[in-house]
């Protein structure tokens, strides 16, 4: 077979392995069939390469110590001899070598918005470091953490490199973003250096939001009460500003139609307020608009399919027959709902209430169809009072409550609409729970928010100085 190595029952005569070109204890194996490659080197861990000439390192710092100087992709090996790719930055800060662990642009913010490093997560392009959407496999992250001393966040490294504007650095000993589990949502955390829009603080505490189920790591420079950085990094800050992650405001403004695609005035206003280039704001608003189109189409299709299904189900049910035999209560809640939907009746309640309503409605329609002059069945608006006793003894359950169906007044068996049968229960007051974190805002899963001079692609690194 092509590329088959020599074995005991095959004679190879190309002589390529006579002088053993493999280094570092590698084993040479001749390839018997004539090909461009005449031999292979089988290399012991941690060596790789055609002649086993490359020794895999444990981290970017190890590569730097071995005189590698070119910033870029490298293969590292962990204590289980598992290999993985990392991006190494060797030259941005003297004395440091940095491993990229996360990077994302604004369009992919929603993928990272609630991720925390101290808990399990799903890696994103974990085997292919990139700037658009990348999150390292967590086992490799833990490995690098145990061989590192610092972590940092920068903005637009791909185009600008490492600059000290919109930049932070912290010691893992003081603030372990990987293993330490926060007790509260936001707290004053120690940093060696923080710079936002050129406003900086050195060896200071800065209020930081970071909690599973609530916030991806970020700082809000507009709210630094009680921390050393209060006043020092807040110049030009906008209320509820998110720095280095979580970006929220731009998505909220889009959802509230304050930012729409093609509205150059609104884009310019946002750009001036949040110090973000107009071009980037316009591109992202257009991106949100393109996402919204299929979402709205899908919503319309889902509602249409739901209505068709309810109509089909209703046509298969002999409601009048069940009424005459007093067996309407044998119907499921969704089948009762299909009755209301078919007559465009707005009603929400328990199963017993629905059965009573349908009985009254069918009775009312039957009286109309016979053109009776005797007193009609009780109007639908009084039926709820009649079934109060039933509803009080029947407990709520998942099967008792269904979605409200909204529509016009009923008209099917009767030629004229009856205001008495257009029953719409009084609306029930609904309240939204207050923000569980008090000061900032109700936590809503909104995707994107931009905060300052450059849109920050969150890039977290570890140095490996141990």
UniProtKB/TrEMBL annotation:
<keyword id="KW-0245">EGF-like domain</keyword>
<dbReference type="InterPro" id="IPR000742">
    <property type="entry name" value="EGF"/>
</dbReference>
<dbReference type="InterPro" id="IPR014716">
    <property type="entry name" value="Fibrinogen_a/b/g_C_1"/>
</dbReference>
<feature type="region of interest" description="Disordered">
    <location>
        <begin position="410"/>
        <end position="440"/>
    </location>
</feature>
<feature type="domain" description="EGF-like">
    <location>
        <begin position="17"/>
        <end position="53"/>
    </location>
</feature>
<feature type="disulfide bond">
    <location>
        <begin position="43"/>
        <end position="52"/>
    </location>
</feature>
<dbReference type="InterPro" id="IPR036056">
    <property type="entry name" value="Fibrinogen-like_C"/>
</dbReference>
<keyword id="KW-1015">Disulfide bond</keyword>
<protein>
    <recommendedName>
        <fullName>EGF-like domain-containing protein</fullName>
    </recommendedName>
</protein>
<dbReference type="Pfam" id="PF00008">
    <property type="entry name" value="EGF"/>
</dbReference>
């Amino acid at each position: 077979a092509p590329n088959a190595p020599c074995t005991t029952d095959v004679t190879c005569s190309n002589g390529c392995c006579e002088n053993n070109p493999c280094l570092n204890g590698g084993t040479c194996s001749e390839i018997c069939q004539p090909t461009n490659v005449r031999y292979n080197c089988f290399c012991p861990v941690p060596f790789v390469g055609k002649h086993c000439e490359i020794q895999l390192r444990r981290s970017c710092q190890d590569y730097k110590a071995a005189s590698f100087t070119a910033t870029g992709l490298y293969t590292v090996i962990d204590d289980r001899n598992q290999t993985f790719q990392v991006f190494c930055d060797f030259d941005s800060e003297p004395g440091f070598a940095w491993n990229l662990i996360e990077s994302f642009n604004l369009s992919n913010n929603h993928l990272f918005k609630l991720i925390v490093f101290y808990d399990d997560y799903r890696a994103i392009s974990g085997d292919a470091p990139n700037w658009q959407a990348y999150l390292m496999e967590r086992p490799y992250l833990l490995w690098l953490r145990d061989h590192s001393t610092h972590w940092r966040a920068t903005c637009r490294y791909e185009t600008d490199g490492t600059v000290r504007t919109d930049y932070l650095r912290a010691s893992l000993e003081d603030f372990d973003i990987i293993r330490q589990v926060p007790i509260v949502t936001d707290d004053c955390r120690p940093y060696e250096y923080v710079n936002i829009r050129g406003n900086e603080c050195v060896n200071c505490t800065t209020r930081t939001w970071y909690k599973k189920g609530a916030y991806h790591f970020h700082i809000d420079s507009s709210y630094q009460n009680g921390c050393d950085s209060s006043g020092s990094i807040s110049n030009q800050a906008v209320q509820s500003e998110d720095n280095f992650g979580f970006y929220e405001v731009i998505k909220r403004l889009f959802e509230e139609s304050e930012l729409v695609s093609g509205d150059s005035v609104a884009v310019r206003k946002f750009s001036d307020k949040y110090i973000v280039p107009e071009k980037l704001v316009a591109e992202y608003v257009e991106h949100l608009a393109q996402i919204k189109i299929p979402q709205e189409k899908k919503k319309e299709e889902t509602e249409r399919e739901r209505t068709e299904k309810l109509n089909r189900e209703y046509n298969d049910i002999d409601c009048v027959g069940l009424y005459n035999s007093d067996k309407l209560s044998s119907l499921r809640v969704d089948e009762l709902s299909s009755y209301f939907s078919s007559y465009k009746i707005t009603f929400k309640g328990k199963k017993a209430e629905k059965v009573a309503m349908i009985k009254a409605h069918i009775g009312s329609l039957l009286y109309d169809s016979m053109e009776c002059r005797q007193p009609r069945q009780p109007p639908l608006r009084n039926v709820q009072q009649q079934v109060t006793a039933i509803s009080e003894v029947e407990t709520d359950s998942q099967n008792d409550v269904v979605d409200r169906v909204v529509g016009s007044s009923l008209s099917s068996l009767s030629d004229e609409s009856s205001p008495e049968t257009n029953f719409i229960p009084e609306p029930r007051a609904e309240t939204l729970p207050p923000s569980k974190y008090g000061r900032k805002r109700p936590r809503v899963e909104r995707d994107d928010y931009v905060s300052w001079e450059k849109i920050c692609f969150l890039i977290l690194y570890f140095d490996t100085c141990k």
